[in-house]
Structure formats: structure tokens, C-alpha cells
Amino acid sequence: MKDGNLRKILLAGFAGVLVLLAVVFALLPGFQTPKLSLLEPRVVETPAPDLEEYSIEAQTAQPSAMRTASTPAPVYPKTAVNLLVDGVPLFALDGRETVELLIRTYLERCAYEGVGDNSILLKASVAAELSTAPADGSVEYLSYDAALQKLLKNRAYVSVQRTVERADVTVDAVETRRENASALPEGARLFRRLGAGARTLTLSEILYKDGIACSDTETLKRQILVGAEESVLIGTYRASQPDREPGTSEGPHGKDKGDLSFVYPIKGRIASCFGMRKGKMHYGIDLSAAAGTRVVAPESGTVIFCGERAGYGFVIEIRHENGFVSRIASCADVQVELEQHVTRGTPIASLPAGETAKTPILHYELLIDGIPYNPLYYL
To answer: Which of these, 324, 316, 310, lies nearest to 366 by C-alpha position?
Structure first.
């Protein structure tokens, strides 16, 4: 074959191939030849996980039982442990020391809750077996405060038993002994002794579980404290002549004066006697004398009061033997003092000047065992 003919055959074949390729590209619309880039390749970085989303608070809100398969495992401290109650994990804390502090604080809160002034705590204990195990992510991880609040809100998690001793005191009614007093005006009441009802002290022991009494009260001791009765005198005295001034022999006699010998505390005249006067009881006698007249002790004794007293002015009281007491008012230029011993006839004061246009008066009462009697029976 000649060279010219061979060249023609090759050109025709190459042209056919080009036509065939053009037909194929026409049948594949949208096909594009990939382009190469000389730029630096773009590096796509995956952001690091935010550790705060695995903090204690976050895991407390999302327990492990609710996590999905795609949720990362929680990040616990290396020292984290599970608290086991009777072998069952309750929650996780950051270490065994935190668990011990938690249980101690929880026990103290429960033990002294409701223990009042009349009760004392005898003993308290946890009514469960507590232990720890390395944290495995099976229970929620809590802070110390969150764990304490969880236990306090539901005491059934860790039950506490405590024994409390309680003291109860009951008081009975006061017993009153009443006596008639003929020297007191009718209707008057004089309490000679105040008393109190008998008291009963009861000590009881009570067992509590989770703050609720779970057994009958056991009585440990019962003691009766005897009270003191009170004594009151009821007046029965009636004036012999209500419409007139009382006489020298008004009122009843008291007990015998024995060896005592009373003298008038001042030299003067009797201005008013013992008894009912204008509807009111006059418990002594009034002696009239000039201002400055010397006042003496009616009988030997000890000064038990020396001072001002409402309604009386300056008062001197002298305690004699056998329950007798002299009450003298009103006094001036006082010459004695409290607890001083005086003898019969010893000067103790002087009579002060009376009110305008009135003669000075010295008031004298004689009390026997606390009851005023007519002094004229003993002077």
C-alpha cells in the first residue's frame, strides 16, 4: 500500500473517533470535567466538647438512665464513689470523705429535729447498711449540698432511728384552807400563805423512725412533787353599832400576850378607836398630841420595817415575841434603823406636825400573827 493511501486511512479513523466522542458527550448532559485547584486544602476542625455540659449540675438534671446512646459519658473525679444503701447505689459523690461528712450531718439534722426543751436525745443511728464503691456512672453525680437536700426531703432513702426521753409535768388544783377571822371585817380576805398544786413528774422514752413515733411510750419514772396548800382568812367581824363611832372595846380579843407588857407609844388622848368607821375598817387607834412629842417603843423587840409606806407616811414596825408586831405611823425625826433592837420605852421618833388646822395624830396598830387586833386590849 502506498504511503499516501495509509495516511488517508489513519486520518479518517481519527476523525471517526472524534465524532464518536462528540456523540457520547451529547448523550450525557450536565457532565463536567472536575477542576483541580492549586489552593491550600480546607481543613474542617471538629469543635472540642464543652466540659460544662457534663458538670455536676448538668448530670443531676439528666440521670444516666435517660441518656441516649449518643450522649457522652459523664466526667467524674477520679476519687468519685457511689453511696450504697443496703447494697443498692443511691448517688455518686466526689469521694469517701464527702460521704462520711454527708451521713454525719444528715444524722445530726434528723436526730435533734423536734427535740424541745422538755426532751433530751438518748441515742440516734442509721437504720441501714451504708457502704461505698467506685463510681461507675450508673447513678447521678451530686454535689454535697444537693445530696443532703435529697436525703432530707425523702427520709426513706436513709432511715434514722432515735430514742428521746421526754419529761412531762402535770399540776393539780391548789388546795386552799379557809378559816374565819373575827377580827377582819365581813367580806375581807387575807391570804396568809400562797400555795401551789401537787406536781407529777413523768419521764418517758419514745422511739422515732424518720421523725415518726413507731412504738408506745415507755414510762421510765413517775414522781409526785407535793405542793403546798394555801391559807386564807375570811373576815366575819360586824360593827356592834354601825351608825356610830367605834368604842374602846370594839372587835374580838386576840391570843394572850404572855409576858409582854405594852405601853402607849405616845402620851396623848385617844382620838379614834379600832373598828368600823364611816363604813371603813380602822385597824388601829389614833392618839392625839402636840407636834414634836416623843414617840417610844411600846415593847422590846427588833425593827423590821423603817420607811415610807403609801397611806401611812413614815412607818416603823417592831417585831416582839410570840407573833406580836407594833406598827407606828406617821413618824418624824426617826432615831432607829432596820434590824435595830429596841427596849420598851426607848425613844424611836417624834410626832410630826399635822395638816393645816388639825391636831397631829399618831396611828398605832397591833398585829398578832399577821392580823390586826384592838390595841386597847393589850395596853
So the answer is: 324
Angle between the 144-153 and 96-111 helix axes, to the nearest 10 degrees? Answer: 40
Residue range 142-195, pLDDT digits in tens: 999 999 999 999 999 999 998 888 888 888 888 888 989 888 888 888 888 888
Q: Residue 38 corresponds to which amino acid? A: L
- Joined grid coordinates for residue 77: 473525679
DSSP 141: B
Cβ neighbours for 105, distance < 8 A, ≥ 6 positions apart: 148
Q: Is 94 helix (H, G, I), strand (E, B) or coil?
A: coil
Asked whether 161 and 349 are in contact (CB, 8 A), the reply is no
Q: Which residue has the cell 389614833?
A: 286
Separation of alpha carbons 157 and 138, rounded Å: 17
Question: What is the residue whose three cell numbers read 427596849?
Answer: 343
Q: Of all helices (H) and strands (E), which one includes residue 221?
A: strand 218-225
Contact call for residues 107 and 123 (beta carbons, < 8 A): no
Closest CA to 350 of 278, 280, 294, 266: 294
Q: Judging by DSSP bridges, how do beta strands 371-373 and 361-368 pair with one another?
A: antiparallel
**E-assigned strand segments in 86-217:** 88-93, 119-126, 130-134, 160-171, 176-185, 189-193, 199-209, 212-213
C-beta neighbour count of 11 within 10 angstroms: 10
How far, in Å, CA of 328 to CA of 317, rounded?
Answer: 6
Residue with cell 422511739: 207
Q: Tens digits of per-residue pLDDT, 310-352?
A: 889 999 999 999 999 999 999 999 999 999 999 999 999 999 9
Identify the CA nearest to 251 among candidates 219, 220, 285.
Answer: 285
16 to each of 5, 13, 23, 137, how far by Cα in Å?
17, 5, 11, 73
Q: Taking Cα atoms as reference points, which of 293, 318, 313 lies closest to residue 303? A: 318
Beta strands in 186-309 (DSSP E): 189-193, 199-209, 212-213, 218-225, 230-237, 269-272, 275-277, 280-282, 285-288, 294-296, 301-309
The rounded distance, in Å, linking the Cα atoms of 313 and 293 is: 17
What residue type is 165 in one-letter code?
E
**CB 139 within 8 Å of CB 64:** yes
Residue type, 315: V
